[in-house]
Design goal:
Elements lengths: L23 E7 L9 H12 L8 E7 L12 E4 L11 E6 L2 E9 L4 H5 L1 H15 L32 H10 L16
Parallel strand pairs: 1-2, 1-3, 3-5
Antiparallel strand pairs: 4-5
Helix pairs in contact: 1-3
Length: 193
């Protein structure tokens, strides 16, 4: 896989490349290359836990089980997993395809050999949650308290204090892509002529 030259990260409060038209992000987990210090069960649970907060913005984060498909291969399968096939300075990118504002594929890749992840497991969870935000179409935030900020852009925030829960700003940005759907009132009765 060829990686483009990396420019300095730019924070953005703009919507991303698109949205999942059905509001469902169905993904699988590939355990290959998981960090040796993280058990197979713990690694899978961490991935699932990191995806969960995004359900609050109206996207069903549907875990479809384990796969041997590699993350990062553009094959129309959404895969989250571990990869060394990225520049060393990256903690984890999200790769994908979109067309006319509709997301077609989003793969979450996490670099397993970052020593900081073993030292600060909260950083690892934040990075994975952040990448799942990209998987549903969000771009980077400019606010250090947001999940969608780049941890590297906020050097004064200790890894133990990085956000794991979506902020109101994260949710507002997500709702710009996935507007809340009106819920029918339970007492409404349709009258038919």
């Amino acid at each position: 896989m060829a990686w483009p030259a990396l420019a300095a990260p730019q924070a953005s409060d703009k919507p991303g490349p698109g949205a999942w038209p059905t509001r469902v992000f169905t993904w699988r987990y590939n355990p290959q290359h998981a960090p040796a210090w993280l058990s197979a069960e713990a690694a899978q649970a961490l991935m699932q836990r990191a995806a969960e907060p995004w359900a609050a913005c109206g996207v069903q984060m549907q875990f479809a089980g384990v796969t041997d498909l590699p993350p990062g291969k553009m094959d129309r399968s959404n895969v989250a997993g571990w990869s060394l096939q990225m520049p060393r300075q990256l903690r984890g990118p999200t790769l994908g395809q979109a067309k006319a504002g509709r997301l077609l594929e989003r793969d979450v890749l996490i670099r397993p050999d970052r020593r900081e992840f073993e030292r600060f497991p909260r950083l690892l969870q934040k990075v994975i949650t952040h990448e799942f935000g990209h998987a549903i179409g969000l771009t980077h935030s400019s606010r250090c308290d947001d999940v969608m900020t780049l941890a590297a852009d906020c050097p004064k925030v200790h890894p133990r204090q990085l956000p794991l829960e979506l902020t109101a700003h994260d949710l507002a940005r997500c709702h710009a892509i996935y507007p809340p759907q009106p819920q029918p009132k339970p007492n409404e009765i349709k009258n038919t002529p």
